[in-house]
Specification:
By secondary structure, this protein is mostly helical. The chain has a single domain, classed as Orthogonal Bundle (Multidrug-efflux Transporter Regulator, Chain: A, Domain 2), CATH 1.10.1660. About 65% of the residues lie in helices and about 5% in strands. Helix 4 packs across helix 6. It starts with a helix and ends with a helix. About 15% of the residues are buried.
Length: about 120
């Protein structure tokens, strides 16, 4: 998870934080809640969503299946519901996240070198 170290100590994250972290809009997250029963953040008395780290992991999985693997929402829903190779997909999703972080770091190094 790329959330900064200070935020890693938090138990709950807002929809705004999760949307920014995953790279989707808040309405997309709300819609995914209606489509995927696995995406079910806790809601406070005022209706504010509170995402746990497990909720964020599930949202990352949905993102991976829909945005990176190109599955339809129905296909991703079947995949998550079934006994598909979810562990492999989770591993792929985690690898992609790590590679994105490495790419950003390398781009930062490149721009620093270009500046010299």
């Amino acid at each position: 998870m790329a959330l900064n170290k200070e935020k890693d100590l938090k138990m709950y994250y807002s929809i705004k934080e999760v949307a920014a972290e995953i790279g989707v809009s808040e309405p997309t997250l709300r819609y995914w809640e209606s489509v995927f029963p696995q995406v079910s953040p806790k809601k406070g008395g005022n209706g504010v969503r509170h995402y746990t780290k497990d909720d964020i992991k599930t949202v990352r999985m949905v993102y991976h299946l829909v945005k990176e693997r190109g599955m339809t929402l129905a296909g991703a829903k079947r995949y998550l519901r079934g006994n598909g190779n979810r562990e492999a997909a989770e591993t792929n999703s985690e690898v992609i996240e790590r590679l994105k972080a490495i790419r950003e770091e390398l781009l930062g190094i490149k721009s620093a070198l270009d500046f010299l």
